[in-house]
Amino acid sequence: MTKAVSRKLEADDRAFQQLADQTIKKDPVRALVELITNSDDSYKRLERYEIENDGKVIITLVRARGFGKFTVTDYAEGMDPEKMDKAVGRFGSDTHGFVAGQGGRSFFGRGLKEAILSMGQGFVRSINNNLYNESLLNINKYEREVPKEAIQLYKDKLGIYSHGLQVELVADRQGIKIPQYETLKRALELHYALRDILSSAKREVVLIEETPEGEIKNESKLSFIEPKGQPIINRTLELCEFENQKALLEIFKSEEQLTGREDNYMRQNGILICSSGAIHEITLFNYDGEELAQNLYGRLTCDYIDNLLRDNQPIIKDSRDGIDWSHPLAIALREFAECEIGKYIAEEKKKSETHEKFVSSDATKRKFKKAIEKLNRIAEIELKDVSKGGEGEEEGSMYPPNGFDFVPNYYHILIGQKSTLTLKMNREMFRKERSLVTISSDSPNIRILTSELEVEEQPGPFITFHAYVEGKQIGGKGRVIAIAGDLTTEAQIHTVAQREKSDKRKRGHHRGMFKEIKYSSSADPNMRVRYDKLNGIITIATSAPSVKLYIGPNGEGQEKPETQVMTAELVTQAVCRELALRRIQSGQETTLGEPEEALNSVYNGLIRRYADVVHSILGPHR
Known about the structure:
The chain is of the alpha+beta class. The chain is built from 13 helices and 26 strands. The longest helix has 28 residues, at 328-355. InterPro entries: HATPase_C_sf.
């Protein structure tokens, strides 16, 4: 047959921009993480050949009107012209030795180009073998200058006097927020992917802020210190189906309160998913809503992940922000970890039931019941269109926070009955290749009734469609995963028994966001008050140092005025923080500034509106 055309597949500039934004999401922190891990990989290659190095990485931030500039400089290998052409001017090349078996995070040349293009444009400068090389990359072009002798002028310009690399990101695209110095410092120090780097004695990572004129405003060495904790799980999994490889699960319980998934990639609790020389994700699996898991941290290490990446098997998401949990190896790792954590949780609950001594008085119970009713009315007012999750609540008009989401992203579903899960996609994200949505689950306790959905464009800001599932075992937990082309989202599922009709509720049972307020002598004393999102319970830890000054382990003093004031204040804090978090995550609250500042602003506003209401119910009677 005569061919009219025969050539390699072409891609336009928009495809490269979409790929970059899918990975980096216009987030300077994500971009810097890619560059820092690239530098770390380069130092590791020198160390394999026992080449002396100082392991130093310098990050520079310049904030200017209308744009920002970041540079990342290392003193490792540098790049010759050929390697620069592959690493900067070409997608998909293994420029970091991953295929050759050297491991690391920078598989198949990913990260550097995405970081540059998502910010806008960038320059890559290097000294290697006494040659100075420089290139420019933006969405329209890749240009490299003719190599020059690395004279003193170029060495002084980069601050590199032997070998090394400097990447300059010019963040000039619309919609990019340039973080304040302290915000950036915290984000990098707590980012899960950098923890091994920032805690290594072989690395020195320094963050500098300069004025546009080049004067140093701030300078700090970045570091990460793991929480103090007691080991509770140390188990090895034999992966017989994967060349008899092994995975090691190590979990600790922190002595201090840890932040959770509300802190996203900065969360302090959770299990790091690791392979040789790289951290790919942090998660508590299906136990993010479990109170007894909130102070757990550790790592699940499986070097076989690197083997799969070398074989081009997609166990890492294309967006590079975590594991693809539908992969057979990922499923095996997840089931192993959840089984071990589940056994620990069950044992802790048994201990808690045995040692719980606190008895609430009838007067306290009446106050708590009245407060729950009022708190749920407040939640209805404040969250209006925002789905509050749990049983019997509507999804309303909540926007999908990430553009393609289950709304809400956690559900209680019934045993033996069809339950509806709502999915939403921003209308601007819809295109033909995303019109077929596949639905799956990683749990045998969840039966998928709708395995595929055909999505059609709809008027309005987002497209709404539904998937149907059924619970198979009481108390089962798992995830439902939806994939639309290159988009993936998931919902946490908890299977429950038959719901009671609203006119036949048990005494004291509530359908709203808040179900119960309770004192507990066995709750973790490191956190005075905690809201259990999964079960709707507000728990006050009576063994916390500042709480036990007012109330005894068996309930003594619970009706004293000072105890009631403290209780009202703690409940107010827990409720207003959760409402603030949901308003921001749903897009219902328009805020300016950094995420932590935005959360505090909304939280303080809710405190002003409702503290007196809660105190009027839970505080001492006048």
